[in-house]
Every structure is written in C-alpha cells, then in structure tokens.
Request: fold
Amino acid sequence: MSLPGEKQTGREQTGSSGDPTNKGESGLVALFFIVGLAASLAIGWIVFPKLLYSKSEQPFDFSHVTHADAVGDCESCHFFREDGTYAGVPTLAQCTECHEEVQGESEAEETFVNEYVAEEKEVPWKIYSRQPDCVFFSHAAHVTGAGMDCAECHGDIGESESLKPYEENRLTGYSRDIWGKNIAGMKKNSWDRMKMEDCGACHKETMGSKGACFQCHK
Amino acid sequence: MKINRRHFLALGMGATAGTLLSPLPWKLTDDASIWTQNWAWTPVPETGEYLYTGGACTLCPGGCNLAVRKVGERVVKIEGQADSPVNTGDLCGVGLSAAQLLYGPSRIEGPMAREGKRGEGKWKRLTWEEAEAQLAKKLNSLSDGKGVAALSAFRSGSVSALIQRLLDTLGSDRFLTLPSLHDSLEQAMALTMGRAPGEGVGFDTENTDLILSLGSSVAEGWGSPVRMVKAAGAKKMIQVEPYLSTTASMADMWVPAKPGTEGVFALSVAAAMVQEKLYDHIFVSTATEGFPAFSAWLLENYTPKKAEAVTGVPPAMVKKVAVAFAGARRPVALCGRGKGETPVSLAEALAVFALNALKGSVQRDGGLVKVGALPYAVAVAESEAMGEKLATLTEKGKTELLLDWGTNPFYTLATSKKAAEALASIGTIVSFSPYMDETAAMADLILPDHTHLEKMQDVPVRAGLERSTVTLTQAAIAPVMDTKHTGEVLISVGAQLDGGRDAFSWDDYESYLEESCGEMWESLSENGLWQGDIAWKKGLERILGTSQRFTFVIPEGPVALPAEGSASSHPLTLVPSWSLRISSGAVADAPFTMKTIEDRVLTEGVSHVELHPSTARKAGLAQGDTATLATPFGSAKVRVTLFEGVMPGVVALAAGLGHTAFDGFIGGKGTSYTALSGTMVDSATGFNCTWGARASLAKG
Reply:
C-alpha cells in the first residue's frame, strides 16, 4: 500500500504487455528467472553435496581383488565367529597372520606393516557401510539365516582395486554410502543406498512386511 | 535497461523453483532430523568380538556367578553365568549395572590421605608404598592394639582371615562384620540343633512346596535374589508383612501383621498347630526334645486369641495359615525382615525354628537345613559377643582406629545422629573401598581395593543356600584406577608391623589365596564355584531320613522387640520397604539403576513415604504433600504417596536411598532409612534388630 501524496511505484508503473518497450523487459525478467533457476539448481545438485560431505582418505590403500585372489572368498577375512556374530572388518591380529612381514611391493602394504603391525596398532578403517548406532543390524540373520550374498547389500566392493575416499556427512556424521552416492537418493542397484526405507522395501518384498520398529531400533 | 524489483522477484522465483527441483531441501530436512537425535552423550558400547570371563558379584551377599562380557579391554555387559547353581544364568538389576560402577565417577583414583578437615573432600594422592607405610606406621605407633577395630565384608574367607591376622598381631579381638539374619539363625541353631563353628543355616527352597515368609522380602532381595525371586514365582507363598510389597502381591495369602510382630505370629501359628494337633507327630515324638514344656508355654502365651492383641491378626486367619502350613507336604518358614540384612531377635529365630520343627521341616528336602562349615585352610575364628563389640563402635571414645573393608559403616551402622557422630569421632579411619562411599569420604587414609570385576578373590556365600558355597571373583580387565587388592595391601602392611614379618610371610596374595582355600581351590579356580555336600543327604541319611535331633527351646528374651519413644510424640510406625532395584547394603546403586526407581518412591531427589489414605487424613496430609518425617533418632523431609497397601498407622520408606557420598548420580537422592531407624537391641544376642521406629509425620 502506498501513502497518499507519495510517488507511485511498482505495479501501477508497469505498462501493458502490448507495450513494445516492455517486451525486452519481460525477456530480461525471464532471464533473471533462468539465472536464479540455474544457479540454485547448480547449488543444489553440485555445490551442496560438496559442502555437505567431507572427504578423507583411508589410512592406506587396499585392494580387495588382490586379497580375494590370494584367499579365495569374502568369508576368509569377513567371517562369522563361533558364537554366530559377524566379525566385520578384520582386526590387526587377523591381518598379521599373513602380513607380519612385508610380502609384496606395494606402498600400502609397507605403510601397514611399518605403522600398524610393528606398532601393534589397530588400523582405523573408515567403514563405508556402517549403520548408525541406533540401528541394530545382524549379519547372521541376513547371511546365515536368509542366505543372502554379500553383494546384495555391498555391491561389487569385492572387485575393487583400491579404496575410494571416505565421505562423511558433516551434519549427521553418517557415511555417504547410507544415503547413497546419488544426492537425489535415486538408486539403480540394491546396494546403492541403505536407508530405513531400503531395508523396509526389501523386507516387504521378501517377507511381506516391513517389520516392527524394535526389530532394528532396540 | 533498468533493473527493478520485478527482476529480483524473477530471480527469487527462479531460485526457489530451482531449489525445489534440487535435492537440497529434502536431503537437508532428512539430515537435520537425524542431527537433532545425534546426542554425543548417548552411551554406545564398543563394537568387536565378545569375550566372556567368569566372576562373582559382591554387591550383596547373594553369591551370584557372573559372565562378564567384554569387547577388547572394555566391560560392556554383565550377565549371570548360565551354569551357575546359584543364579542359573540370571542376575538382578543391581548386579548387572555394576559395569557402570566400574567406570563411574564414584571410583577412587588411587591411594589418598586426608588433607583438609574430616569429610571435607580434600585429599593428597600417595603412592602405594607411601600409603602402606603410613598405615603400618600408624598401627605400630598405637599404644594398645585394643583400640583397633576392623569391619570386614565377609565373616570368613581369605581376606577376612588376613584382617583377623592383622588384628591378632596388634592384640585386638575386634574383628567385626555387619550382622545379618544369619547371625541370629546360627545362634538359634546352636540351641536347637547344635552347631559346630562355621556351620550355617540354609533353606531348601528349591524343594519346598510352601514358603511361609515372616516378613522376608522373598521377591525383593532376601537371601540370594535370583534364586528367591524364582522361588517366589514358582512356589505357594504366605507373606506376613505390614506392607503390600511385591512379595506380598505374589503370595497366595497376605497376612498384614503389625510391624515387628512376625515372630509372635509364628508362635501363634505354632500354637494353633499344637491346639489343633496339626503338627508332625512322628517327627516331634521321635526326633525332638522339650516338646511338652514348649507346647505348654505356647498354649499359655501364644494362642491365636492371645497373640491377636500383639499382632492384630484375627485367630481365624492364624488357623488358616496353620492349616495351610501343616497341610503342605514340605513347607518351610523363613524369617528376617526385608533382605535379611538386619538380625532378628534370638527369640524370634527360635520361634521360626520351632515352627519348622513342628512340621518336621528340619534337615530334610524343602526344609530348614544345616549348612556345613567352609573348609578354609585359614579359618576366621568366630567373634564372641559381636553384638556388643559392634555397639562399641558407635560409642564415643572407644575406638582409636577403624579399618573398613567393604561395609561402609557411615551408612550401614549410622542408625541415628548420635551413632554417626560417634563414628566420626574415631581417631583414625582407614577405608579400603573402591568407591567414594560415606566411610571413604570420612576416612583419613584410603587404600582403594579393586572392584569385584578387577580382582580374583574368594567370596564365601552366606545367603541361606541349602549347601555351603564359595564363589570366585575374577579379573575381567586390568584395574581401571590405581587400585590394589586389599589382600596384597594387608600382606604388605602386616609384614611391616612389629612382630608381623612371620605372620605375613606370603610372597603375594595370589599364592596366599590358593593356600587359604585349601581343598576348595581346585574347584574354585576351575569353575569359579565350590559347593559342599548337602549335609542332610549324606550316606545313610539319604535312605533313612534325618538323624537330626531337635530341641524345642523356650526363648528367654522378648519375641517382638518394642520400639523406643512415646506414642504421643510419635504416633505412627516407620517401616522400611524393599526393592530389588535399590541396593540397601554398603555399596549404593549404580547411576543407571537409580533411574529405575519409581516416582512413588523417589522424585526430584526427595524420598516418598507411603501411607494409608486414612493415616494421611488423620495427619492432614494429601498425595504429593511435603512433610517432615521424624523418629526419635532423626528427621527428614519427605513427600507423601497414598497407598492402600500400607497398614493404617504405618509409614513405609524405601530403604537404601539417601547416600551422601558416591557421585552426583547416586548421592544426595532421598532419605536414608537406616539413619532414622535407631537401635532395638536384643538382650539375648546384643544385636541391633531394629525393624522400624516410632515416627511422626507433619505437613511442611
């Protein structure tokens, strides 16, 4: 609203659409719209993910291929303990069974043997697929019980030659792999993301029900 | 070209549209919602392989075996050991929350000497050499060893034997333990069934078919808690108690007798059994002595009608109980109010023995049984006149130096303001507590022991089990603090005493432990448990039945001890209420367990008293009111909770609260029942057998 006597601005000053001088202006308005649209799309799709995630390298590189060739299968290193619990990422003691001395020529192995084996220090691996603490997840139920393959959730990690950088969500502290690489949350493969809906969808499909809250959130 | 507001609006609209078409708002919303729930303080156990070590709990006398779960060098969970005959895989809340005590802020960092005033909390850290030398020097400097008293968590066992040896070297006979129900029961057993030193009393609740509980909190921690909770759930039960406790609510019959008169009630049931000829004639005529005189005394003084004046229980109800007790195949009568932490009068214990004997429930399956002495190679001589010696502790000027190993007398023996003052006037106080308990806080010298999860030590169990039992604590992890096994400290200090070198010649505690446990060691070290034979099932007795003789004894002292004070100034009666979730012994609950206490018992750090609505009406009180609870021994601010399950005229206060030391999660919460309970000395034993106190309750 304008005050009486004040110079009128805004809407009332704009001419009709038939005014030729305004044609160029509406083109300019459209341009501004497009600039705004493009900039925010760029921010949302490109800048935002870069800001949201911090990137860090693993303590040293690791080739699943080399190891799988040497030991044969996933279970040799990622095994179930006698009590049925899943051992997860191998501990130093397990690795040391083979790597007490440097065996090959890779720089990574040298780092491992000198900095960790010699110092008896556990390797602080950053785990891509670690679910948050509020989630109870049992590998035994899925692998031993339901007979699922590692790859159904972990994809082709077993065929990786080297380790990708670990990306951590600055807000939540979760690994990027939980939400998935695709910032829009789109997935092509079952292992692309592992949020609650993904667990639920698979459970719904295979078991007919998403399951109850307390099954995972104990 | 002029850029105006329209262009900015277009830019803004474009930006809005673009943002909405990008994942930013949706992803950010999701992340923000997760972020709001990411609390840094949420305790998350270590992940990794589970390792289990065995162990034993010492937080109460129950003797439960533990399975301590670890990840790496961190204790993450405590469970009951699955194959333990004592607790069969289960554990109470207090026992399993010990992991929090282990890492909690109430732990003492290392040996310390007092710097400021007593109880001020100013300490000087010492090395272990300095601390031990200081204690040895102090002990050597005493003119007379008689001024030294020592309180021990156990009556027997390896460390107790060392404590007694230390006192012997100093020339003191004041080896003390906190008295319990078992001290009364053992004296009653000596009179009725005969007792060799070290022998104890057990109740074969596994094989019984009816438990007549005379005020015992069977489901709230009496005896060995897991065992008894299971019994309470499985057996027929008659509960005699002025308060509708969990036990009473689980019982088949609840008999609200006036507080402190459970023993008289037992005698009235016995009298009814005699009157109605419901007793076991064969057992009484073949295996007992003194029945004619005893039954005559019963019928003269304790017929249900006469007893009603004392107990308030109508004769019909007494008869009903007598019929049920006599009609059961293998019933057993238990006594010891609450958790059995307080002795009962000798007369009351004798009444319960007599009641069991009338039904032949002694030395047989499901009955009251004799438990063999523990075959320690280093025995602890039984302390004569323990009741009087304990009373001396709370008399001013009688004690020059007090050693406390796991009894926390400033909480457990401070039954009145006067008693607390007397304890505080003791010349030198030495605490071996791993936790900053009330006694450690008042100590001059603290030589902290390991907790039961950090050391190996024998635990003689005195909890009414049917056979003699010793468990073994084990070091699940390396000590968290700079603590030292009290056994090691005693050996080291003992050797520094004048004339102590020969008496304490062991290299270390571990070799001494093995030696002291004698024949029990093999089983103890292998299984974490040693159990003796079931005495009444030995040899021929298994076939022929018991050869045990029983003497009916007419008690000399009063069965029901009167409460001190006048009815005009203190018209109500204060009784304790008990909970499986509140540790009422020397060590307080862990912070986690404190959070499980119901709002009707404790809110905002203030204890609630429970009373019948009619009692409250008379006192002009309503639900939630703040009131002052006063007994002849002290007073406290409390809140009022109305509960129809409390006898009119009775006020119930949860026992085990009101710790003043430990840490902010444990201490300063509620009121200590003990501090208000005062003393009721049983003339026959000298023990304080208090069951409650006269009390008044006024608004404000």
